[in-house]
Structure to design on (671 residues):
């Protein structure tokens, strides 16, 4: 095996637990070189785990001075180590990009020597791509916690998205498995970059030629299921970060056991909490696109998301007074709260009802999940029912319908005890 | 009544023109090559006349705007006869004053039109994603594809902007034509009859760049390494990368 191939194998393998994959949101144009950013983002392929491959996601090196128990590249872990040279990363990126394999580069790194040394090396790659190769494709750069503001600011002028991982949802969880890290080291650069983005935008209003600064914004990631935080705590943190730091995305990464070294962590062989991760993303979407407030879905009385049913359905079952919603008269914002109706369908409904009252067969054809939605909506030919069906009954009916369709294994529940 | 046209978009627009000029309704637009025709129905051959087609196109743009007018071109590229008919119905509605007919999702024609539009747009997006260039010894980046719909005209602009500093060729194996970019402009290319005959053994004649195989190999390596075995989910995988695309994907070959 060639050395470059071995490096790629090690450093792609080490980077894959970072779930951030998006290549959207940037406005970078091709200015007499190669490449541009696609506003919607493009997933160039999908691995067998069903995750998209949009960017060449690699670490610069997996040498690291830290020893975080959940991380595959931690100092004490016995894995092969490698490091790319600046030229190697540039050569790989350009050749993959020209063949339309990728949408751009996702560059992260273990921390060797110190934060600034690592950040400076990453910055050199980014600058070489932009200046020498005249590359205008997408670049996602990890901010190294503790790197100086000058370096972070300079990097921001060349990249499309920056991100820095919270790693674990709470400070308490972090102390358990990564005592050398804390959330403040994450919040500081997030704040700094956020303020820079704002000030560059302000400046652009006055001076047209202001350069673009991190046009696709910032994101972060939390590992789920490694430490005992409940869903309410996780979503509270996510909600705060969306509000306070204007993040474009918060990613939730179900913990995949990689060693048995730390007794606090789930051991090898336990299944990753995939269903729980999915429920968290659904909640995330409800908060950002469906006008839900966090306390409607999760609150001190309901600290766990239901693994059997999605959070919107779960909310609906707890709030029967909100239903049935008449799709022929209700507001768009009320229609998107019906389980089984998404934003696209809701938009179609609101437009189509101008031409006449909608019937069940029309809703079905439009593509709503009618078997779920039928308990919560009213349309032109809905039968008249006295009183409300019991929500217990509705839940049972929907679940048995689902089970009939695909009997799936439900992953073990979240941790409740230390 | 059947309107027979030459299979081009301009010809299709001329059918709309013709039906208004002759005040004929219940039109089914088909091409000369379509054979499954009801023997007992009337038919009329519509000759493509560019000025007429342009009048229809301009009239459409004035009524519903440029962006929405291109939706009809996209749906036309689906090559789906039922979608053509839905398209024809909607166009007639628009020209008789129902400009908002596209929102009437309760109507079968309108719903079908929007579904086909979505399919074509999805295929267009997939081609942006799934095209894989190989580099030949003379520096040409070429790719073979077999899209479900005739979407090459819809991705030409995208590739021209992105890969502006290198010559490339995207060839549609199903429809036997391709787009060639010479670093200045995009042109349509077709293989000559002699070349088509040679197509039993295509690509043998092309000498590859010496490092091309290396990067294909590295890409496969990366694709394998970035997969998380513990999360394997083939159902989702196949949903995103249906098997029919595997033939031309380096990492799935």
């Amino acid at each position: 095996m060639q050395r470059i191939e071995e490096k790629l194998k090690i450093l792609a393998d080490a980077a894959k637990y970072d779930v951030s994959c998006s290549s959207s949101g940037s406005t970078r144009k091709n200015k007499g070189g190669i490449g541009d950013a696609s506003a919607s983002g493009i997933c160039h392929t999908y691995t067998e785990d069903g995750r998209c491959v949009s960017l060449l996601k690699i670490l610069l090196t997996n040498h690291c001075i830290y020893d975080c128990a959940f991380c595959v590249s931690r100092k004490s872990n016995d894995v092969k180590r490698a490091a790319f040279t600046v030229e190697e990363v540039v050569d790989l990126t350009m050749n993959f990009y020209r063949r339309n394999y990728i949408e751009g580069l996702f560059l992260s790194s273990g921390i060797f020597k110190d934060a600034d040394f690592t950040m400076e090396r990453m910055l050199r790659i980014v600058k070489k791509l932009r200046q020498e190769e005249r590359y205008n494709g997408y670049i996602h750069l990890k901010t190294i916690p503790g790197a100086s503001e000058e370096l972070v600011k300079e990097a921001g002028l060349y990249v499309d998205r920056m991100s820095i991982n919270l790693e674990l949802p709470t400070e308490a969880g972090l102390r358990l498995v990564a005592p050398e890290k804390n959330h403040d080291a994450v919040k500081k650069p997030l704040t700094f970059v956020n303020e820079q983005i704002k000030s560059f935008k302000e400046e652009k209003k006055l001076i047209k030629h202001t350069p673009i600064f991190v046009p696709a914004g910032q994101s972060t990631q939390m590992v789920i299921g490694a430490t005992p935080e409940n869903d309410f705590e996780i979503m509270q943190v996510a909600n705060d970060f969306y509000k306070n730091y204007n993040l474009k995305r918060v990613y939730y990464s179900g913990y995949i056991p990689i060693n048995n070294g730390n007794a606090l962590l789930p051991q090898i062989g336990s299944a990753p909490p995939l269903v729980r991760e999915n429920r968290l993303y659904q909640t995330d979407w409800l908060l950002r696109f469906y006008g839900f407030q966090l306390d409607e879905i999760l609150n001190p009385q309901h600290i766990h998301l239901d693994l059997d049913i999605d959070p919107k359905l779960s909310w609906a079952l707890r709030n029967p007074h909100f239903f049935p919603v008449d799709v022929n008269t209700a507001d768009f914002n009320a229609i998107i709260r019906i389980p089984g109706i998404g934003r696209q369908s809701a938009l179609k409904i609101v437009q189509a009802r101008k031409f006449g009252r909608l019937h069940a067969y029309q809703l079905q054809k439009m593509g709503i999940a009618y078997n779920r939605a039928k308990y919560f909506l009213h349309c032109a030919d809905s039968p008249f029912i006295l009183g409300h069906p019991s929500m217990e009954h509705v839940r049972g009916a929907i679940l048995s319908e689902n089970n009939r369709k695909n009997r799936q294994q439900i992953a073990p529940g979240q941790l409740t005890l230390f | 009544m059947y309107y027979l046209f030459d299979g081009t978009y301009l010809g299709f627009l001329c059918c709309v023109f013709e039906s208004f000029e002759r005040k004929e309704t219940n039109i089914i637009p088909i091409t000369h090559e379509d054979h499954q025709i009801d023997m007992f129905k009337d038919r009329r051959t519509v000759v493509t006349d560019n000025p007429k087609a342009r009048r229809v196109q301009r009239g459409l743009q004035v009524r519903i705007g440029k962006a929405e007018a291109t939706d009809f071109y996209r749906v036309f590229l689906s090559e789906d006869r039922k979608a053509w008919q839905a398209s024809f119905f909607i166009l007639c509605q628009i020209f008789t004053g129902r400009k908002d007919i596209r929102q009437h999702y309760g109507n079968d024609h309108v719903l079908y039109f929007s579904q086909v539009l979505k399919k074509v747009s999805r295929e267009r997006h997939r081609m942006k994603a799934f095209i894989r260039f190989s580099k030949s010894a003379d520096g040409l980046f070429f790719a073979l594809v077999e899209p479900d719909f005739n979407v090459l005209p819809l991705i030409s602009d995208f590739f021209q902007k992105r890969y502006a500093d290198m010559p490339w060729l995207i060839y549609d194996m199903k429809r036997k034509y391709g787009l060639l970019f010479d670093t200045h402009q995009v042109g349509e290319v077709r293989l000559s009859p002699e070349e088509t005959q040679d197509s039993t053994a295509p690509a043998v004649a092309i000498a590859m760049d010496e490092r091309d195989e290396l990067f294909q190999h590295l890409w496969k390596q990366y694709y394998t390494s970035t997969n998380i075995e513990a999360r394997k989910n083939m159902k989702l995988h196949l949903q995103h990368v249906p098997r029919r695309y595997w033939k031309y994907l380096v990492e799935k070959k």
